[in-house]
């Protein structure tokens, strides 16, 4: 089970909420007054920024911060804001994909760095369309259409003054995240996220053969076995060496496959972008 499914099952399903997207983030700027604490300890937890919508009507769009401490599978809900409290989403760089972004609420500003640029782009894209749908529904609910509001030809137009709510402002965000080709971009970002996570999961495993070889050599140097035990240990070392070589070959094949998938995803992204430009 991936982390998004676990968060949805443990945090949002019991609250009758639907999880739209969840990404791993970390703070870009240290909080003032806590620098001495941050310098003396490592980050012993992972932070996930989640976007959800309630199943009840009228639907509410919520941004939730969830934490998971290292070494455990337990998830904990920390903070939650509604879209009405979200004043601004700052994409930092409108020219290229970057992992940095800011969320400005009524009383606080959070500066985040996503684990990858693709995760940040996917989060901003889903958040933009969720906000758009929410504010459109809010406006339609505040100004219901009635038969008496039909416009009569030749009659002067009467403008109604309504207290329009302050909507979320998206600044420094790439146009492709808010354009018509959102579904194509979503597929591209999900492919990039999958490949990035697979590559990160493979990296820690590459050091295991070396650690096992060092451990075997240390155990051999500490003991002084008899000749039959030496032959037995030699056979074990040969089998271990064979296993390590086979594992190395599998890792190399997996690395080649990952490179091939990355190249294919890049070609697919370029083709999708050209197709989106033709449709516009």
Automatic annotation (TrEMBL):
Keywords tagged on the record: Coiled coil
All copies of domain V-SNARE coiled-coil homology, residue ranges: 222-280
Keyword Isomerase annotated: no
Regions that span the bilayer: none
One BP annotation, GO: exocytosis
Keyword match DNA-binding: no
Descriptive protein name: V-SNARE coiled-coil homology domain-containing protein
Region (Disordered) residue spans: 143-164, 200-236
Molecular-function annotations in GO: phosphatidylinositol-4,5-bisphosphate binding
GO cellular component: exocyst; plasma membrane
SMART domains in the cross-refs: Sec3-PIP2_bind
InterPro entries: Sec3-PIP2_bind (IPR028258), V_SNARE_CC (IPR042855)
């Amino acid at each position: 089970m991936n982390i998004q499914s676990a968060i949805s099952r443990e945090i949002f399903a019991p609250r009758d909420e639907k999880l739209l997207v969840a990404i791993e983030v970390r703070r870009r700027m240290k909080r003032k007054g806590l620098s001495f604490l941050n310098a003396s300890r490592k980050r012993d937890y992972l932070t996930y920024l989640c976007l959800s919508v309630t199943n009840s009507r009228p639907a509410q769009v919520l941004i939730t911060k969830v934490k998971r401490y290292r070494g455990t599978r337990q998830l904990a809900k920390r903070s939650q804001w509604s879209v009405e409290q979200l004043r601004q989403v700052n994409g930092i760089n409108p020219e290229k994909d970057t992992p940095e972004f800011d969320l400005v609420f009524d009383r606080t500003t959070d500066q985040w760095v996503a684990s990858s640029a693709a995760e940040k782009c996917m989060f901003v894209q889903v958040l933009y369309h969720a906000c758009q749908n929410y504010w459109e529904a809010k406006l339609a609910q505040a100004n219901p259409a009635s038969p008496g509001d039909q416009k009569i030809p030749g009659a002067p137009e009467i403008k109604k003054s309504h207290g329009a709510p302050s909507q979320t402002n998206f600044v420094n965000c790439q146009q492709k995240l808010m354009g018509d080709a959102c579904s194509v971009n979503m597929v591209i970002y999900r492919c990039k996220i999958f490949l990035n996570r697979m590559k990160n999961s493979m990296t820690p495993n590459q050091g295991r053969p070396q650690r096992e070889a060092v451990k075997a050599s240390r155990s051999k140097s500490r003991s002084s076995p008899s000749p039959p035990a030496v032959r037995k240990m030699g056979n074990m070392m040969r089998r271990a060496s064979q296993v390590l070589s086979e594992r190395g070959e599998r890792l190399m094949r997996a690395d080649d496959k990952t490179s091939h998938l990355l190249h294919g995803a890049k070609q697919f992204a370029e083709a999708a972008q050209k197709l989106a430009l033709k449709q516009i």
